[in-house]
Amino acid sequence: MRYFVAIDTETTGLDLNLAVPIELGMTLFNQDFKIISQWEMKVQPQTDFRSDNAIAVHGYSEEMMAEFPTFNEFTEELFKQLKTWNDTYPNDLGHRRDKLVLVGQNLFYDTSMVRNLLGAKNPKYFTLFMDQFDYHHLDTAMLQSSDMLFGGPWRSVALQKSIEARGLRDEVDELCRKSGKGVIRAHTALYDTVCTMVLLKDLVKK
User: Fold this and answer.
1) 163 CB neighbour count, 10 Å cutoff
2) Consecutive H or E run containing 96
């Protein structure tokens, strides 16, 4: 059995050099696209940089963010969760047993945000984070746009637009209702990880 982790972040902005995450969501699922486990945690912003556009999306005020868990609380829980998943669900790829496969929509952006958060304190933290995953990664944005590279038409790769265009919203919302996490609010990191998993399933089918 193969296991994957879809990740997504809500951030203080879109600037790859200045923004940091204030929320990280992860959904663990298997090759049959069954959700195994989910994790989401907020963290106090480690920068003064803010973007009005980002705040409009996630809706977290300064007062709310001040009450989020501290960096140390966040990292302790993050690495504890990843270790548990890797110990419990090792990938069996036939010729080797490997770590979880990382999945994301515009994965470079989300891993850059995690780097900004963890690496600002200690570069080893980000290395440790990436070491939890197999060296094979999947980016659903790249999978969607791959035909464009070979002369095909340009297609939008924005996550929510892709979900709407492919008629996948009902499936996402139903999975969120059944997740055991309660009704996951749209435009949270955890909701977007479910969107990413459903989008990958649709891409694989086609």
Assistant:
1) 21
2) none
Phi, psi of 145 (to 5 degrees): -95, 0
What sign has the CA pseudo-torsion 145, 38, 131, 14? Answer: positive
Question: What residue numbers bound the domain in which 170 lies?
Answer: 3-205
The CATH number of the domain where 70 resides is what?
3.30.420.10
SS3 state at 60: coil
With beta carbons less than 8 A apart as the criterion, state whether 74 and 20 touch: no
**DSSP letter assigned to residue 178:** T
State pTM to two decimals: 0.91
pLDDT digits (tens, 9 = 90+) for 30-78: 999 999 999 999 999 988 888 888 888 888 989 999 999 999 999 999 9
CA dist 118 and 15 (Å) reads 16
Burial of 139 from C-beta contacts in 10 A (0-12 / 13-18 / 19+): buried
| Domain count of the fold of the chain | 1
